[in-house]
Every structure is written in structure tokens, then in C-alpha cells.
UniProtKB/TrEMBL annotation:
Gene3D superfamilies: Winged helix-like DNA-binding domain superfamily/Winged helix DNA-binding domain. Belongs to the proteasome subunit p55 family. This is PCI domain-containing protein. It comes from the Eukaryota. The keyword Nucleotide-binding does not apply. The keyword Metal-binding does not apply. Coiled coil: none annotated. InterPro entries: PCI_dom, PSMD12-CSN4-like_N, PSMD12/CSN4, RPN5_C, WH-like_DNA-bd_sf, WH_DNA-bd_sf. Residues 231-402 form the PCI domain. GO terms for cellular component: cytoplasm; nucleus; proteasome regulatory particle, lid subcomplex. SMART domains: PINT.
Length: 443
């Protein structure tokens, strides 16, 4: 298919002259001769970018096949014309819309087989977009006559088609020097909406163990959505729910191990926040992780308040991690490097109130510009508080305090000090009283 370009010639007269002749031939039982004549002129109109004439010819050819009730010729005609080099999109669209208008009549008069053959032809021509659009628009969750499993299966099929269409649109971005605005973003949004229609409690219910296949299919598609959005924490949570499935968890050396490994990968890739930190520490405390020595050690690095030198991380974990499907991507490996840097900056902020830029750059194994970029990102996100004094080259990790704050802290400290003094005084008095009683008893 090609986008319309400037029309080079107008074939209106030739088309108006040919169509009655072609119709006469088809009426006389010479359908293929009529089609051959149309194809010859169609090639000329297509190459000249005469959209109006091309559309008339392709729809006329289909109509001749339909009137002759030759549906094999109709399917071949639609396939052939749609695959012509440089075929105009609008002409194909008109031909498909025309054929869709005949579907109901064909189903009633010719039977289901012929009807399905034409639908399959249209599906092939539209690269599956027709079927995807029809299925994705159905609000199956409102159908009370369907049982829960059937509804869930249908919604999952909607999601699968939407993901396939979204990836197709995403792959078309940048082809022929053009960008497809938004790519498959609209379809990815529909995937998320579809995911919310699935009742996760129904999938988790132990009484519905027969639905484990649906549960795994659902979370597989939600993982695809999360990774498309670079939502690593969501991906980790979905893998965790997969891992919790009894049939998966029991497969310690197979699917269970794979799921647990992916939980580790994506939880360490997720940006630091309270939820990520909580999941990371709960994962570290899980006895199942101890069996995966390398992954246990990696999680331990992120839960221990100590610096991680990136060159050391590359040497220890790089050879194994880069062989995995996750970290074979340069983007995700760079994201891991970023998380190590952010971890190190948080640790430095815990132990230092002030540090020189040169020293921090050395600790992070970065250039000064890279150090400042990461530091600024953490400050903007609210992860740490910091200010850079460029003239003197010092970073402050403690904000200046108001006199009221200082006095409040002093007052609190004094109260604690007086409390300790009072407690000590009472202890001394009790000891002296006990000593006095002991002396009296001895005398």
C-alpha cells in the first residue's frame, strides 16, 4: 500500500468508456475477460495516482464478481488488487468496505463456508485489523448469559489481538521516512482497560484451579504491557503473582525458578520508592531466594547500606546477567547501572552531610556531568535533599534549618538529658539506701 501522491493524469474518460464494455462482457459470461480489461487500465490509473479512477475500477471489478456469484473470483480479485505494487490505501479501503456490505447477504444465500472465506480474505487484506476492531469493541463483560470463565477467555483474546495490533503499529513507526502518530499507543491503553475488566480474585480462588491457564495467560499479557511502559515494578508484581501459583511454585527448577529470577531482575530495575523498597526487603527475606545464590547476592547488595562499585558489579554479575533475555537489552543493562548509581547516592546522603563533587564522582565511577545529572534527578523526584555549591565544588546533603527547628531539637535533647539525669539520681539513691540497710544488718 502507498500513500497518495500528486495525480499525474486524469483517466476519468477512459474509465467511463471501459466500465460499460466490461459489464457487457461479464453479463455475457466472459467475466475473466472483463476483469483483464479492468486490470490493464487499473495499472495505469494506479501508477498515475488517479485515486478516483482507481477506486472506481477496483470496486467495479469486485461488483462484477459479486453479480456473477463467482466468489472464488471475488476473493482472488480482492487479494490480487490489494497486493499490487503502489496500491492506494483509499482504494483498498473502498474495496473492503464494499465487500463488507455483502457479507450478510452472502451468509444467507451462499452459506457459512463462503461467508467465512470472504471474511478470511478481508482479514488477510487488512492484516487482521478488521477482526481486531470487531472483537475489541464488544463489551462482553455485560453479557449475563456467559459464565465467568467464558467471559475471561473472551477478554483475554481481545487483549491478545490488541497487543498484536499495537506491536504492528509500533513497528511501522519510522518506515518510509514517516512516523505513525502515537504508534500503537491507543491499543496499549485498551489493553490496560481490558486488564481491569478481568476479575483477579476469580483467577486466584483456589476453587478455580482449572483456571490457572487463564491466570498465566492474563499475567503474561499484563507483563508485556508493563514492560512496554517501562513499569518494572508492575512487571515484578505480576511475576510475583505468577510465582505464587501453586503449579508454578512447586516447579522449583523449572517455571518457578524462572519466575523468581524475573522478580529479582525487575524489582532491582524499578526506581526506588517505598513500595519498591518494601517488596525488595520482603523478597530478600523469602527463604526461596537463598537457593538462587547469585540472585540472593544481588538483592543483598541493594538492601545493604553500603556502596556498590559498578566495575565490581559488572565483573561479578555481568557474565551471567547479560546471557539472560532481560539484560540482553542494552537499555535494561543501562537501567541497572542507573539503579546502582542511585543506590550509591542514597547511601552517601545517609553518611555524609557534605562531600566534594570530585570525591562523589570518584565513588560513583562517573564523570562530573553524569554525577550532577543523576543527583539532580533524585532531588527532583524527592528521593534525597541536596544542593550543589559550584564555586567551591561541594554538595550539601543537609538543608539549612530555621532557628525554630534548632530550638525545638535543643529542647527535646534537654528533656531527654534531664530524664536520664533523674533516672541516674534515683538509681544512686536506691543503691545508697540498699547499702545502708546492709550495714545496719551487719552491725
Amino acid at each position: 500500500m502507498a500513500d497518495p501522491k500528486k495525480q499525474e493524469k486524469d483517466f476519468t474518460k477512459e474509465v467511463e468508456s471501459l466500465l460499460p464494455e466490461a459489464e457487457s462482457l461479464a453479463t455475457a459470461g466472459k467475466l475473466h475477460e472483463a476483469l483483464d480489461k479492468i486490470y490493464v487500465l487499473e495499472k495505469q490509473t494506479r501508477n498515475a495516482s488517479d485515486l478516483k479512477s482507481t477506486t472506481k475500477l477496483v470496486t467495479a471489478a469486485s461488483e462484477l464478481c459479486y453479480k456473477a456469484r463467482n466468489f472464488k473470483a471475488l476473493n482472488n480479485n480482492i487479494n490480487t488488487l490489494s497486493k499490487k505494487h503502489g496500491q492506494l490505501k483509499a482504494a483498498i479501503q473502498a474495496m473492503v468496505e464494499q465487500a463488507m456490505g455483502w457479507l450478510e447477504d452472502i451468509r444467507k444465500t451462499e452459506g457459512t463456508d463462503t461467508w467465512l472465506e470472504l471474511i478470511e480474505t478481508l482479514r488477510t487484506v487488512t492484516e487482521g485489523k478488521l477482526a481486531s476492531d470487531l472483537l475489541s469493541e464488544l463489551q462482553v463483560e455485560t453479557y449475563s448469559s456467559m459464565d465467568r470463565r467464558e467471559k475471561t477467555e473472551f477478554i483475554l483474546e481481545q487483549m491478545r489481538l490488541l497487543i498484536a495490533l499495537a506491536r504492528l503499529k509500533d513497528s511501522e513507526i519510522g518506515k518510509d521516512g514517516k512516523d505513525s502518530i502515537g504508534g500503537g499507543e491507543a491499543e496499549w491503553v485498551k489493553v490496560r482497560v481490558g486488564g481491569r475488566k478481568v476479575n483477579e480474585e476469580f483467577l486466584k480462588d483456589k476453587a478455580n484451579e482449572a483456571c490457572d491457564d487463564l491466570k498465566l495467560k492474563y499475567y503474561d499479557m499484563m507483563i508485556q504491557y508493563a514492560l512496554q511502559q517501562s513499569s518494572y515494578l508492575d512487571a515484578a508484581k505480576y511475576y510475583y503473582k505468577v510465582w505464587e501459583t501453586p503449579t508454578i511454585k512447586e516447579d522449583v527448577n523449572g517455571r518457578g525458578r524462572v519466575a523468581l529470577e524475573h522478580i529479582v531482575y525487575y524489582v532491582v530495575l524499578a526506581p526506588h520508592d517505598n513500595e519498591q523498597s518494601d517488596m525488595l526487603h520482603r523478597l530478600f527475606a523469602d527463604p526461596a531466594l537463598v537457593k538462587l545464590e547469585l540472585h540472593y547476592a544481588l538483592v543483598k547488595c541493594f538492601t545493604t547500606p553500603e556502596l556498590m562499585r559498578w566495575p565490581g558489579i559488572e565483573v561479578i554479575y555481568g557474565p551471567h546477567l547479560k546471557k539472560t533475555e532481560v539484560f540482553s537489552s542494552d537499555k535494561l543493562w543501562e537501567d541497572l547501572h542507573t539503579r546502582v548509581i542511585e543506590h550509591n547516592i542514597r547511601i552517601v546522603a545517609q553518611y555524609y552531610t557534605r562531600i566534594t563533587i570530585a570525591r562523589l564522582t570518584s565513588l560513583l565511577d562517573l564523570t562530573q556531568q553524569q554525577t550532577e545529572e543523576v543527583l539532580c534527578r533524585l532531588v527532583v523526584s524527592g528521593t534525597i535533599w541536596a544542593r550543589i555549591d559550584r564555586p567551591v565544588g561541594i554538595i550539601n546533603f543537609r538543608s539549612s534549618r530555621s532557628p525554630e527547628d534548632v530550638m525545638n531539637d535543643w529542647s527535646s535533647d534537654m528533656q531527654r538529658l534531664l530524664g536520664l539525669i533523674e533516672k541516674t539520681w534515683m538509681g544512686v539513691n536506691a543503691a545508697q539506701a540498699a547499702q545502708s540497710r546492709a550495714l545496719k544488718a551487719a552491725s
